[in-house]
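User: I'm curious what two different proteins look like when written out as structure tokens. Can you demonstrate?

Assistant: Sure. I'll show them one after the other, since each token string lines up with its own sequence. Here's the first protein:
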Amino acid sequence: MSFHAYLLRCADSSYYAGHTDDLSHRLGQHQAGECAGYTAQHLPVELVWAQEFVTREEALAAEQQIKGWSRAKKEALMAGDWGRISALAKKSFVKKDRK
């Protein structure tokens, strides 16, 4: 069995991160409004990124990490721009370090 972390773009252009063991089924649930909460209030949704993981723990860790990211960092992830992700992480670290 494999697991996925995923990112959806909602109708209002916001992003939602999640994880699942059945990506196509879960996407259908989101699109049908069957997942109570954020996505049900922001339909329709579109899958914009997903990655497969060996364990649920890895997929959950990726979801939680992505949820903490800025919009710019999420968009760099969708583009596969690891250089930009790294630069944004450094920028974020510098801001926090200055407080």
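Here's a second, unrelated protein for contrast:
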Amino acid sequence: MWLDYISDVGDGFDSTYTMAYHLARPNLDVATLDESKNIYSTKQGEILIFGGDEVYPTASMQTYNERLLKPYKAAFSQKNAFIPAIFVVPGNHDWYDSLVSFSRIFCEGLKFFGSKTLQNRSYFALKLIHGWWLFGTDM
């Protein structure tokens, strides 16, 4: 099972799009910086976890749209792009509007760049393979 994690993403279109572009790729080869120059092949995650602070500097529907939704929609709009299951934990910047915008986008079953959001609270628990669990808390 492959899982992708990203956080502190909503600085602006260019930086957010760049990271989303790489998350949308089916494969990514990463080289080490040491003299061995080893190459590690990774796959796109079946699940994408957002670890908080989806927007900066303050949360609003306009800020989410400009700094998160539009860049991810553009990056994942490739024909036949695989859309992972998405789970999100808010960060302190997401709380600036008391999670109103966060809840509308991630907790009401709406589509976020092509994937229906599956959580209905600002926290989640995922049962993974081999008896593992992943807990996303917003404490």
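A detail about the second structure: Residues 61-75 form the longest helix (15 residues).
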